[in-house]
Amino acid sequence: MKTYALVGTGGRSGMYLEVIATTYRQSARMVALCDTNQTRMDYANRNLEKWGHAKVATWKAADFETMIA
């Protein structure tokens, strides 16, 4: 299974989140979100749940290196 961390949760991110959570749920999973805006990450997590995926960890952009580690 491939794992993904999405960096940037603006308007276009939804199409990536949705396809991972639905179409490719058997072979892919989202493990983290990274953005400068916690509200956008919270919204993305609510959408993941709506599409049947568990919430994932959220990381501020300043903590990108820690998230990768």
Give me the secondary-structure topology.
Layout: E1 2-7, H1 13-21, E2 28-35, H2 38-50, E3 57-60, H3 64-68
Parallel strand pairs: 1-2, 2-3
Would you write up a description of this structure?
By secondary structure, this protein is α/β, with parallel strands linked by helices. The chain has a single domain (2-68), classed as 3-Layer(aba) Sandwich (Rossmann fold), CATH 3.40.50. It is built from three helices and three strands; from the N terminus they run βαβαβα.
Short description:
The protein is of the alpha/beta class. It has helices at residues 13-21, 38-50, 64-68, and strands spanning 2-7, 28-35, 57-60.
For this structure, what is the CATH homologous superfamily? Answer: NAD(P)-binding Rossmann-like Domain
Instruction: Report the mean per-residue pLDDT as an integer.
Output: 97
Number of helices: 3
Total number of distinct structural domains: 1
* Rg from Cα: 11 Å
- N→C terminal distance: 19 Å
Helix fraction by DSSP (H/I, runs of at least 4) = 25-40%
Which CATH C-level class is it? Alpha Beta
Strand order of the largest sheet: 1-2-3
Per CATH, which architecture? 3-Layer(aba) Sandwich
Helix-strand topology string:
EHEHEH
Q: How would a crystallographer describe the biggest sheet?
A: 3 strands, parallel
Uncertain runs: none
- CATH topology: the name is Rossmann fold
